[in-house]
Amino acid sequence: MTTAAAPGGGGRSGSGGWGAAAVVAPALILLIAFNVFPLFYNLILSFTSAELGVEGWTWVGTRNYQRVFERPEYSAALRTTALFVFLAVVCELALGFVLALALHRRFAGKTALLTALLIPMMLPPAVMGLYANLLYDGDYGLLNQIISGFGVAPPQWRTDPAWKLTAVLIVDVWMWTPFMLLISLAALGSVPRHLYEAAEVDRASAWMVFRRITIPLCAPLLALAALLRTTDALKQFDIVMAITGPNDQATQTVSALLYQGLFADGKVGRGSAYACVVLVLVIALATVCTRYLDWLARRQGRGA
Amino acid sequence: MTDHPRLAVAGLTKRFGAIQALAGVDLHVGRDELVVVLGATGAGKTTLLRTIAGLETPDAGSVAFDGAEATSWNPAARDVALMFQDFALYPDWTVRRNLEFPLRAPARRLPESEITQRIAWVAELLAIGHLLDKPSTRLSGGQMQRVALGRALVRRPRLFLLDEPLTNLDAKLRERLRLEIAALRRELHTPMLYVTHDQGEALAMADRIVVLIAGRVAQVGSAEDIYDRPASPEVARLLGHPPINLIAATASDGFWRAGDGTPLAPATATVGSRATIGIRPEHLAPNGGPRPAQIRVVQHHGAYQVATVAWAGGESHVLLPPEAALPIGTELHPSVVQDRALIWPG
Amino acid sequence: MSKDFLVLDQVAKTYADGTVAVRGIDLRIAEGEFVVLLGPSGCGKTTTLRMVAGLELATGGTIRLDGKDVTGLPPSQRDVGFVFQFYALYPHLRVADNIAFPLVATGVPPRERKERVAAVAESLGITGLLDRSPRQLSGGDRQRVSLARAMVRRPRVWLMDEPLGTLDADVRDTLRDFIREQQLAHRVTTLYVTHDQEEAMALADRVVVMDAGLIQQAGPPAAVYDRPANRFVATFVGSPGMNFLPGASGEGLFVPSAGGPGIAAAGLPPGPAILGIRAEHLRLTTVGAGVPGTVAGGEYLGAWRLVHVRLGDGSLAVVRSPSSDRSDRPASAIGDAVGLAIAPAGVRWFATDGSSLEAR
After folding, report:
1. How many interface pairs between A and B have CB atoms less than 8 angstroms apart?
2. Which of A239, B151, C86, C124 is least buried, going by the fewest C-beta atoms within 10 A?
3. Shortest alpha-carbon distance between residue A208 and chain C (Å)
4. Could you tell me the pLDDT band of residue B287, with boundaries at 50, 70 and 90?
5. Given this model, what pLDDT does residue A300 score?
6. How far is it, in rounded angstroms, from Cα C45 to Cα C8?
7. Which residues in chain B touch residue C220, judged by CB atoms under 8 angstroms apart?
8. Mutual orientation of helices B171-188 and B141-153 as an angle, nearest 10°?
9. C-alpha–C-alpha distance, residues C295 and B178, integer Å
10. How far apart are CA C261 and CA C5, in angstroms?
11. Can you tell me the distance from the alpha carbon of B76 to that of A9, in angstroms, rounded to the nearest whole number?
């Protein structure tokens, strides 16, 4: 039952007012300064001709938005991002879950192994990207030396347009599979042991136990992890930046394009318009997330 | 001041969404009294305790301690010790630290020697001395329950609130602890409000029983009162083991008769009026009655046996002496011990 | 009907950390028999049950089911139904799918599956719950569903691990009767674990009392209650447990060390011994006429009343009498001096080491 125990003697109901305002004021001010103000400033700029290094600007109405919907690089970046996010999340989830199944039991050195696996996740993505460049180098990179060792002609990871996005993807998967692994381990651990025992006594095969017990009971947590990863992968920038730079058509994600437009080309107005469009998409996605979390919480709350 | 009971609850009402947990509960606990609140799961017992402890705010009604209106007091100010049904121990602490915790609260400031002494006392009482230095996560369910009980007992509050403290324990340990808790209350002279669904605990321990059904007080009285003169069939069903036989009856030819005509008790009511007749198994003699009853199941209870018989258009329980060897299918002729049938017209 | 349908031969379990849970159990269960393993927490009863199910592997001895050695087999190859204390229902499946699970697992075709689920639900009175989620059910209903799941495949043995442990008293009684009726109706060999002696007595054809990983006594409920093999069984079975009066015998007379008149003890060897007597075979009397003591407390139990009497040596004895018997009333206030009269038919003799002297 959800009833807030309200400690505190007398005036528990009347203690709002100025006292409460004083407590939340600092947070509120910071929120306005760093979140609300930039948001509105961005919205205003999106209707102007503002450019970096150019004095003054004029209202241009919805022209920036028209450009965003007309010019191919904007929709191309959205497609690239969508493809990237889809592949990244699916690969990471699948790989993480399979690894978790393998690691979900006690064995010597489990903690050490987990710690080692988690290291990539803790490094800054930009560092990971730069480090990956060493591996990806066409002639001297470790990766290609290994591949040529098998007698296969190695791809030019950073220059061949067909492989560039894959190169970015591999680094992302490398970084974030451990996260999925962790969540998967938690999900597997949350399935009560007696359910497995019951299934065993019920004479279920290992495959049936996996499909009918393990998967459905892990699904809510895995879905949550996938959602979190999706919102995060949408912002992909650092690795792209490190491997191909922001203005490469094969890997130009939304964030890379924003960077290119705003800072390299200086088109502040148009960049802001694009940012607003992306923001709407992100809000839509975030709404799905919170709805899902609400549903999950209600389901959990309904009964033990 | 001294005339006031330790706890007085009046018109307590609490609703959670569609569920009316408490619907106007009145009760009081004297200064040296063990009051048991007896009710089935979902009757509102836990909500009642939590409201008295100050963990829930009632929608209406009042809580008073020693005559002082306390409905708006915070839990700490109430100075009651609440023992939860689910033990709520601090997981990484040792048993000793868990027990000491309530004594180290800043409001108390007990001297170290006093703390040591009280821990030793409660450890001895609950036989948990050998567990004191174990982390609480390493205990069995029964051990955790005892530690949780110890944590409530180690304080000297104005009132103990115990929420089914023996529920998850072994039956044998439960028997021992219910004696000890009752003895303890006499020794400490601290009143207790004890919530349970176990009629045996209620009967054995209570100075007074408050029967709670669907958020309402259905009856208040001594164990004997409620067992011998239950106010309604619902109350009667809550007490007694094996449970009371309840039979719908109609008055005709001077008897309350079951659906199949079996006479159950003399009736003075007009012919055709209806009643529920309650007959405790110990008041249903195995033989001497007019109608046959076949034994369906016999269960041995050591000092006696309980036979389930097909009688009066339904199933009834009859007590048999321990040595009787009566196989399934044997015919008895149950008869109601004179004047022991309970009659609720309507 | 096989007399040795389920056989445990010197079955033992020592865990990897060295904890000995079961020291060596010998048990022969006939087909259709209802056997209850009874004992306190940690006595090894649940481990024994789980070894029969295959959820734990025995580290010693053999388990044979219908003549076949199943000691090393996984649960899925033993054809047993298991009812867990905490229901173990699949939370994401509807009640109907929970019950159907063992049938799906063994490849029963959908039509037959549906029929069998419907039939078992009907017999358990849970037809109305089939479309619900387990989360929406009360404890009693959850355990009914769990029973249905254990029954639907018609396994050769039912194994039940304290199935009523967490339920309200009234639900517990109803379900207890129900389990017994079902077991009698289908004559399924059943091994049932509980710590509640009353439940054990009420259900069992044979009660197996366990302590410290060993069987202390096995026998029909009445025999275990009436002729306990040792003090542990005498104390654990029965509520309250048996009373004990240490003393010494000589010349056919036993004299309790707590005082009082001697008690006829024909055939008892001279020397120290312990008299055991159930609470219903004690009666309160005047100080001179029985073992002297003081009333220490009372418990009203509805049909009965218990009076606790503190004896001269500090031990407690419990007297049980029908509530309708008012003769005890005047002398049962706390602190009153009373005597305990002993009914000779209720006397059981024990050696000082706790073992019964009755068998000889």
Report:
1. 20
2. C86
3. 7
4. very high
5. 59
6. 13
7. 300
8. 10
9. 17
10. 51
11. 10
Put simply, the answer to whether A212 touches C90 (Cβ < 8 Å) is yes
When the candidates are 3.30.1440.10, 3.90.180.10, 1.10.3720.10, 3.30.2010.10, the CATH number that belongs to A78-249 is 1.10.3720.10
Chains linked to A by 3 or more Cβ pairs within 8 Å = B, C
Number of other residues whose CB lies within 10 A of the CB of residue C178: 17
What pLDDT does residue A12 have?
40
Classify residue B296 by burial, with Cβ atoms within 10 Å: 0-12, 13-18, 19+. Answer: middle
Q: What is the DSSP letter of C260?
A: S
**Quick one: angle between helices A268-302 and A63-70, nearest 10?**
80
Report the alpha-carbon distance of residue B339 to residue B344 in Å, rounded.
14
Chain C: nearest CA to A212, how far in angstroms?
Answer: 9
Instruction: Give the pLDDT score at A153.
Output: 81
Note the CATH number of domain C4-235: 3.40.50.300
Q: What is the pLDDT of residues A24-74, one digit of tens each?
A: 888 889 988 888 898 999 899 889 888 888 888 888 888 889 888 888 888
DSSP state of B31: T
Q: Evaluate whether the domain defined by C242-350 bears CATH number 2.40.50.140.
A: yes
| Residue A266: pLDDT over 60 | yes
Place of tokens 């100010």: B77
Q: What is the pLDDT of residues B158-185, one digit of tens each?
A: 999 998 888 777 788 888 888 888 887 8
Q: Which residues pair with B38 in a beta bridge?
A: B196, B211
The CA distance from C109 to A255, in Å, is: 54
Q: What single-letter amino acid sits at C323?
A: S
Bridge partner residues of C292 (DSSP): C339
Which residues of chain C are within 8 Å of residue B302 when distances are taken between CB atoms? 197, 201, 221-222, 225, 237-239, 278
Long-range Cβ contact pairs of A252-255 (< 8 A, separation 24 or more): A252/A73, A252/A76, A252/A77, A252/A80, A253/A77, A253/A80, A253/A81, A253/A84, A254/A77, A254/A78, A254/A81, A254/A278, A255/A81
Chain B contact for C195, CB < 8 A? yes
The whole-number pLDDT of residue A7 equals: 39
Q: Which residue has the higher pLDDT, B132 or A285?
A: B132
- Whole-angstrom Cα distance, residue B80 to residue B194? 13
What was the ipTM of the complex prediction? 0.85
Instruction: Say which residue, C96 or B41, is predicted with more confidence.
Output: C96
The answer to whether B297 contacts chain C (CB < 8 Å) is yes
The owner of tokens 């009397």 is: C285
Q: Is 80 exceeded by the pLDDT of residue C264?
A: yes
Can you tell me the mean pLDDT for C113-127?
92
Give contacts of B225 with chain C, Cβ < 8 Å.
none
Coil, strand or helix: which one is B295? strand
pLDDT for residue B262: 94
* Alpha-carbon span B88 to B85, nearest angstrom: 8
**Could you tell me if B21 and B15 are in contact, meaning their C-beta atoms sit under 8 angstroms apart?**
yes
- Ranked by mean pLDDT, the top range of A118-127, A150-159, B164-173, C31-40 is C31-40
**Residues of C whose CB is below 8 A from B39:** none
Task: Provide, as residue numbers in chain A, all residues whose Cβ is less than 8 Å from the Cβ of B74.
Answer: 7-9
pLDDT at A302 over 50: no
B266: helix, strand or coil? strand
Residue A9 has a pLDDT of 39
Calculate mean pLDDT across residues C329-335: 70
- For residue C40, give the nearest of C222, C188, C225, C232 by alpha carbon: C232
From the CA of A292, how many Å to the nearest CA of chain B? 23
**In chain A, domain spans:** 38-70+267-304, 78-249
Angle at CA of residue C173, ends B306 and C52, nearest 5°: 100
